[in-house]
Every structure is written in structure tokens, then in C-alpha cells.
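New here. Invent one.

***
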Amino acid sequence: MQYEKVAILQSNYIPWKGYFDIIHDVDLFVFYDDVQYTKNDWRNRNKIKTPSGTQWLTIPTGTDLNRLICDVPIFDTLWTKKHWKTLLHAYQKADCFKQYYDFFQYCYLEKSWNNLSELNQFLIRHIAKEFLGINTQFMDSREFSVSGNKTERLVEILKMVNAKYYLSGPAGKSYLDKNYFQSAGIEIQYKNYDGYPEYSQLYPPFEHFVSILDVLFHCGKKSSYYIWEWRFENIPLTECKE
């Protein structure tokens, strides 16, 4: 297998638009869930916009921190009803909410989830492919037999798929060993999140750093414009109307 540009990231719960911007920019996106789980991080929670400001949606995962992300079970099912009720309250008046109602009602009220990684990956894959039309291939780090420290494992995965470029979020500048990647013939590129255009968002002032659901529910099929297409088009688009 050969993929020129690759990103390797931990799965997040309904992540923000920048996460999907990275997915769009690469040929292969690898979920990196066989690593240490960090509580109160983006793995099990994210923010949405509500009439009273931003609000966290958090999946209860227990107190045990000695787990990998892929080993975090989901026992409590009460949170699903709570999250769905909160989303209804916050977004049922958004222009495009009805387009996604059936899917998310299924995810929150009908589908059962065994663990956090399963839930996160399902939502991310579906949103990317079905709602945003992204053609990037997905894999899971557990499909690769790699060992070593974090950097060594990343590079081994990249070498196994013959990657030339590794796309990282800007935070990677503080911990990635550029020389180690270069010695393997891989160039690190860092995503720039600056310049995202605003759209007509309920409950101003505008907030960029909320879940991808906010973009979908407000912009519908035009969501991709507000994530990556704006960089190539000069004329902004209006949101959908039901």
C-alpha cells in the first residue's frame, strides 16, 4: 500500500471542524487509539453552542485512567438520552438540523455502543464520508504491528504505508522530533487553522471551537465550504434553507 500524505490522530468525540479539515487534506487517516486514555480531554467530550453559551457534552467513562483509548468501555446509557435532548434544545431551530435528525437519533437512542473508540470512529467516519463527501481512506493503528515510543510508532506506521508527508496539528511542533522523521524520509507538515469563515450561527457571538455538529446543523451540504473550500473560492455561500 502507498499513501503520499498521512495523518495519525486519536479519535475524539464529535470533534470540531479542524479535525475534519485534516482528514480532508490527507490520503490516509489512521485512528491512533491504542495509546493511553486521557480523561477530560477531547476523547470523551466536546463543546456545542447553546442559548446560554458553549456547553460541554461529556461521555462518562469512569475513574480508571490505566487504560488505552480502545479499551474504555461505555456502561452508562443515560448519557445518550441526555446528549440527544441537549442537541435538540440547542439546534432544532438551525436551518439544516432536519437533514441529520434521523441519523443522530439512531446513534443516540437506538444504537448501542461497546466502547468509546467504537463510538468515536463510527461517528467520524460517517460524518466525513456521508455528510462531508471526503474520500480519504481510514485505518486503525491496531492494524499495524509496531512498537517503541510514540515517535517511533508513528514513523513505523508511516513507513509501512510508504508515506512521504505526515500532517500534524499545530500542537505537534512542541513534541515531534523533526530530525527523526527526516531520517526516515518523511516530511512533517503542520495544519494551519487560521481564517475559517463565519456562518450564520444561532446564539451570537460566533464561536469556532465547537463540535462539527454546529457546522452541519447550520450549513448542511455547504458545510465543506466553511471547512476547506473557502481557501479556493472567493464567493461565500449562503446556508441551506429547508
Summary: The first strand starts at residue 5 and ends at 9. Strands lie at 5-9, 28-31, 45-50, 53-58, 137-140, 165-168, 187-190. Residues 1 and 25 are 18 Å apart (CA to CA). The mean pLDDT is 94.
